Amino acid sequence: MGVVCDVNEFEARKPGNTNKFAAIEYGLMICSVVGAVGVLVWLVIYSRYGFDFTDEGYYLVWIATPKLYDWSLSQFGYLYHPFYTLLKGNVVLLRVFNVCLTFLLSWLLVDLVVRESFSDRARDKIKRFFVSFCFAIGGLVFFNVWVPSPSYNSLNLQALLIIGAGLFIAQKRISKECVIGWLLIGVGGWLAFMAKPSSAAAVGFIALIYLFISNKINILMMALCAIVVVVLFAGSALLIDGSLIGFERRMHTALDFLNYLGGGHTFREILRFDSFLVSKSDFVIFVCLLVVCTLSVCFLRSNRNLTRFAGFFLVGVATICVFALLFGQIVFKVEYNSFSGLLLCVVPATALLLSASFYWRETISSLSRQRLSAAFLFMLLPHVYAFGTNNNYWQIGSSAGFFWLLAGLVFIAPALRGREATYTFLPLAILTQLVVVILLQRGMELPYRQPKPLRLNSHSVEIGANGSTLVLSEAYAKYLEDVIAGTRLAGFKMGTPMIDLTGQSPGVLYSIGAASIGQAWMIGGYSGSYKLAVEALKKVPCEQLANAWILIEENGPRSISDEIVVTFGASPSDYENMASWDTAKGAGGYEGRPRQALLKPMNSIAVNQSCINIRP
């Protein structure tokens, strides 16, 4: 290390200084670890709270019954279904599983990034273990929108974390660790394709560029990686559709259906550059956190005991703020901003500022081509995660903002050794936790398509065929209680096929245990929604269509016309209204919506025969 580090080590050898250093070091460790554990426990507790009837309902329907659909672009339902079965369909445990898996994969990747700063001594390995544990909280920024159930988005992020770990440790020279790295790239690539093919294509392109620039190209290892991808892909295709041709047909149909919808997913529409706008309040928070964290590290590096304790005091205050946010003693009353997730960029910005201020010689001398290319790789991965969406890439990519954090650590980690590593990493880790908690709290104060902050939810409701208990707002709880009571009085039985013509109620179908036929989410509101619904129902057996109940919402903002039943040989007069209920305000993101009604098929035999007759 440089002169500063040598002076600190000399100071540490002075009589009476060793204990003071150790006390501060252990104090920093305790603050950061306690904060990290607190965030994890907080998320586990809140996994019982809230429910979104649109996207999250769709995810759960897909995971619970993936075999109902012979077309799909993402196969996340098949990959998460074994865990859903293992957890006996418990939505709360499924959410906890999603949180823990994301955290563990984040922990693995950040540990690889910071390990160069620690020696192989047992004591330093323990320090590295805790430092990486504390930074891994950054991966949980994914849940800031508060749709905590597993989805194609969570699988996409988890796949990119695995690929990132593989690319970071893969080398041109073959070794045991190198082989593990290439295997991880293969597994992660397969998972990325199963989650989101557009992101898989993007990460494949970026990975090749990274391997070339970092001089890691190894034909044998690349062949091994390709074999892993092919074997896993072929195996999943056989398990899902029985053949590669069947799987290809599934994907081709899904692409056709996506074009029918007109949702902005064509190649020309997804290949674009988006802009972003940071709010004034977020900018102020960004600057304040940047200054406080930089001062903390500056004070901790001082040779003066009083100044050093001042640095520890600032870190302690930051930890207290983390818990004040966790316990709701501090609640940020700010308007919703689509780009709030960019606040996490304060961590890499602080790391770069510290590198430029204190460690610039060490940083310049220790940065290799591999480290630089890894930093650029991590900077691009949030956009790879978002690639293919019809929303703003910066907005969606911020859910994978953990990679931006890693890019900053990649720059600074090689310059740090000994106590310099502790005095720099731990304040940065606590800064990470503070930012993540701020963003998570915002998500919980304005949960996705829900009317109230999660902390105000107080009504427990059992949903789904397995009776998972969730804590919801009073309005949402009453809505679901009315739905469940109405369907039971109407004689509806779990597992019965149902067609959702409200355009936005997959969560209702999941809650009553209905088999959502045609699509896991019969999505409305797009120019091609009706055509997609017609084509999707054409793939459903006539017997299921004839016996399917229908959920309608006349004149709803995303409703699909009930005239669609004519396309499979029925007519609206073949159904009887068995129950109706008021739709909760805020459900689906709309303040006011019409009543919903449950329709029962009354001429199943005739409709079945008519359906058979009109089909080719």
TrEMBL record:
Domain of life: Bacteria
Transmembrane segments: 26-46, 58-80, 92-114, 126-146, 152-170, 182-213, 219-240, 283-300, 312-332, 338-360, 372-388, 394-416, 423-440
Keywords: Membrane, Transmembrane, Transmembrane helix
Name of this chain's protein: Transmembrane protein
